[in-house]
Amino acid sequence: MESLSLQNFISLIIVFVSWLLIIFLLTARTKNKTSNIILALFLIVNAQDSSGLFASYFVYPKFPGWGMIINSTVFFKLPLLYLYFLSVIYSDFKFKKIHLFHLTAWIINTIVLTPRFYAVDFDAKWAFLRVIDYRETIEIRFSYIIVHIQILVYFIMSFILIKKYKTLLLENYSNSNLLNYKWLFQIVFLYTVIAFIATIKNIFLFLHLETILFYTQITVSLIALGFMCWFVLKVMHSPEIFRGINSNLQLVKSIVQEDQHMRIQDSIESSEIIALKKYMLERKPYLNASLTIYNLSNEMDMNVRDLSLLINHDLNQHFFDFVNGYRIRKAMDILKDPQKKELTILEILYEVGFNSKSSFNTAFKKHTNQTPTEYREKALKSAA
Predict the structure, then answer these.
(1) Which residues neighbour 342 within 8 Å (Cβ) at sequence distance 6 or greater?
(2) What does each of the 384 residues of the chain score in pLDDT, given as a tens digit?
(3) 42: Cβ contacts below 8 Å, ≥ 6 apart
């Protein structure tokens, strides 16, 4: 009884925290209403799955069929999370008929339960639920199998999607503040940990290891509570954490595969590359902190596809690294100039096109193996 009470108490906290975030998402003023609605639906389903109290105490006793339907919403959790990822990654996201594919697991589960549960009368439904050990029913076992297959499929899909998002950002943007794919990766990683422990819990459930099962359930509940608290704080602190990209953006490797007439360069220093480098040195477009490959292609009056291939393929550099290389070299010139020693690191990073100290320090150390301060001290000492 104590174990049940403790687990229910933790579940109620999860539900309370979830609803706080749901209310915030549905009332917050934002351009990305679709993402907020999808995330709110995910949290509603997650809260129900985490506790099950509403269905167990208020629905099942009088409406067992509806109780099973409510519990079956667990099959919507990962599809909703995946659709949320799509909606924040792509600024032009819209629901399409193909998204009905995400109902597959729920439909299969419903079909399996229909003959002996949904299609029978009230007494037969209760007889199904009151079986000596519901874990022994083939339908329930099958439902658990579907859930775990779904977990595996959606985590693979999510990691592939996030990896693609990261690559597209690096190939098309120069501003590291756009690299919020880390936030997506953190969500998937933490959710993977929770799902892994929940899977172990289910193994104990079917092996009838009740004592170990209790402690595993408590562990899952506590981790889920921690995840929800972290999630709320993250969203509250950064409500506009994502800046979506256009769904028409293609990975450079896809463009290369599609283009059967790729030019073969005799030398890496082709006329186009020479022209690009000359433009970067003379016009200094990298000083624009929000420079994108579209901006640069417009300035150079060059097709964006050709420019992307030139930088990301021919030079074998991501656009992000290509632009930041010029910014770092500009910063190095300023740092070793005795006449500019009064400028702070913060002033310099803004001057050369960066917009955050952390991203500047990371990029500078990547190019020089030194921090900006260390580089300045050594350069000025050598010049003295």
Answers:
(1) none
(2) 444 566 677 777 777 878 888 887 788 776 778 888 898 898 888 888 776 666 666 677 778 888 888 888 889 999 999 998 888 888 788 888 999 999 999 999 999 999 988 888 888 888 887 765 666 788 888 888 898 899 889 999 998 998 888 888 888 888 755 556 777 888 888 878 878 877 777 777 777 776 777 777 777 777 777 777 777 676 666 555 555 565 556 666 666 655 555 555 444 457 888 889 999 999 999 999 889 898 999 999 988 888 888 888 888 888 988 999 999 999 999 988 888 888 899 999 999 999 888 888 888 998 889 999 998 888 888 765
(3) 77, 80, 81, 84
Whole-prediction pTM = 0.79
The three-state DSSP-derived secondary structure of the chain is CHHHHHHHHHHHHHHHHHHHHHHHHHHCCCCCHHHHHHHHHHHHHHHHHHHCHHHHHHHCCCCHHHHHHHHHHHHHHHHHHHHHHHHHHECCCCCCHHHHHHHHHHHHHHHHHHHHHHCCCHHHHHHHHCCCCHHHCHHHHHHHHHHHHHHHHHHHHHHHHHHHHHHHHHHHECCHHHCCHHHHHHHHHHHHHHHHHHHHHHHHHHCCCHHHHHHHHHHHHHHHHHHHHHHHHHHHHCCCCCCCECCCCCCHHHHHHHCCCCCCCCCCCCHHHHHHHHHHHHHCHHHCCCCEHHHHHHHCCCCHHHHHHHHHHHCCCCHHHHHHHHHHHHHHHHHCCHHHCCCCHHHHHHHCCCCCHHHHHHHHHHHHCCCHHHHHHHHHHHHC
How many angstroms separate the Cα of 371 from the Cα of each of 118, 230, 357, 364, 374?
66, 31, 11, 7, 5
| Domains along the chain with CATH numbers | 2-237 (1.20.1070), 254-383 (1.10.10.60)
